[in-house]
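User: Show me sequence and structure for the first protein, then do the same for the second.

Assistant: Starting with the first protein.
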Amino acid sequence: MNSSGRAKLDQVTQILTNLQNDLKAPKLSVQQRKQLLEQLKVHGRSVENSDPIFTKNGLQTLSRYATEEKASATSQEALRCIANALLLVPATRQILVDLDFGPWAAEKLDSESTDDEFLLSRVLFLLTYETTLDYTNLVQENHLADNLNAAITRHAKRYSKSTPQHARGHTSLMDLMALSETLKLLFNITHRSPDLSPSFSPCIPHIFKILLRRGIPTPPLKDPTNFLINALMNLDLEDTQHTHPGTQTAIFPSFDPPCNASHLIAILDKALTSYPDPELDATVSPLLTLLRRIYPLAPPPVQTHMQTLLLPTPAERSKPLGKSDTFFSRLLNLSTSALTPTLRGSISAMLFELSDKDAATFVHNVGYGYASGFLMSNNIPMPESVARANAETDGVLVNPITGQRLDREDVVEQQPMTQEEKEREAERLFVLFERLKATGVMDVQNPVEEAFRSGRIEELADDED
């Protein structure tokens, strides 16, 4: 250890000693305690030569200042030190759980302070990893769900029309950071403990309210929009137990039932042109998952509206499907992209669901070329008759392979084959089928040989024209 490293370690040790002595016999002023904790926070931003902070003794000292200090500024400095420790040294998380810090943090989350919300949500979020913290107990005994729902409700009130225009929305970075941490905590809890999801149903309308009234940012899935979507993904949107009967109204409000679905689709549209393909898989997949969860819950008029926005329009069929520069074409091309393995499956599944989970309708909507891979990989049989796939669009037949209107297909003018060309093609086919038979993979009958045997081919003399 060099001299600067030794000096830092000595400073960290001395600060913790001063803080521990003050807990035994209080002598420091509030300002002095805050200054010592600020110095410790700076040192604790790096693991090197800060070892005493990450021990049980160091965390116990910090947790006592966080929980026992009446001055909020001092308590918050202690929480910042704790949050840094949990982030940098994962082993400290279980130490803090063993110190019974979780129940206090869950109850303290009822604070209306944005700084408290940010720090407490961050600490509780980090404790969802590699610890034995019982979040079910925090919900049942320490009001975690109630306090988290209340925090999101406070954020949503910023977007109420009754709020003065100058104060509407999130006006500071800390407000947005606090919302993001709370949403991340909500996602992790409901992801790891799905049975707790109904406890957080009251925040569903407030999340949709924030999402809708914030509009579409640039890029469209930047924080906290992505966290709002992620949080909704695990919540009990169906609400089968009817513990919160307003859930369905929250998703499909009576004043404009399709508004939330339309907004999510608009975000998806923007996202597909805002991120490179390699990033789309991780960025957009949660949004697709949410749309797929919403669709089966939607009333028929909203389902029809979603189909209108997500499936090809009649104008789209003037070209083969996937060949234009439209939202639907981008979706369709991503459904077969090697760069988006997760997204391509989700897109195909969504389009299949929008097609009433009917193979023939699916082929009609996307063309057999795009549909075949999904149908085969999911063992979905194609009906012998694809009459519906070759159905009419605006009274005009469409090509079942490409999805293009037949009357818009290019007419290919081709000279008829000469007798010599026909003979060469027949010989080529004969050789290909003989090679296939030789592999033993398939028992095939060479059509040229079969035609000769049936008398449909006549061998001509060398001098015959």
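Switching to the second protein now.
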Amino acid sequence: MQQILSSWFVKGMIKATYDMWLKGWDERNGGNVSLRLLESDVISFQNDFYEKPRHVSLTQDVTKLANQYFIVTGSGKYFRNVILDPADTLAIVKIDEQGKGYYIMWGLINGGLPTSELAAHLQSHIVRIEQSQGKDRVIMHCHATNLIALTYVLELDTAVITRWLWEMSTECLVVFPDGVGVVPWMVPGKDEIGYATAKQMAKHSLVLWAFHGVFGTGPTLDEAFGLIDTAEKSAEVLVKVLSMGGKRQTITSEEFKLLAERFGVTPLEDAIKQ
């Protein structure tokens, strides 16, 4: 057995993808995850890398990620099967020196490519490295049911959606004080949606794709998962509240300010003013 299968990052991807499937967020081959790896993470497992790794060109410039390693989910792979065959459903890629493509160093043993949303992942990684001083290493995309539902009935506006989600669960302002960015519907898998997502990721740790899904980021797989899970729970509460005729009382702006002061966070100003 390859030693790399026992690495913390392969085990972490197995757990994250299976947890996401159990949540109902990743039907069929829906969703994708990428985790930025350090040289120190992979150095002990390089004997498991391909002797002649396949090179794949990119249609965008990712020079800022040159020589960086990522473990990513594969295109067309079912999250429910990652636990059964990680070597088929996952890949470790290394961005080339020019930032014009990448090498498949491990995984995808039956062929194929990394996630079709790789453009969105790489552009988001670039901005999150800058915004978090290198702490954020995970980009996670899924089809969280209630968050998607809300994009059909709420105004597609960052301040509006953020405020509604904050009001449905007290912890939300603390977990994502920077709010939820919103990207209008766009064709998935293209460079344009990658750039639009990265623009929102520069300001928000959560980004909603209207009528499609959500992107979350964080330093670890657990933190990115927990971020999405918290927002999705709040969205579920909101769906129930709306189905019962709407809210009769809620958390006020002044109370949100007290909450922010208590936990030492700076909430999105536009959402506080809603």
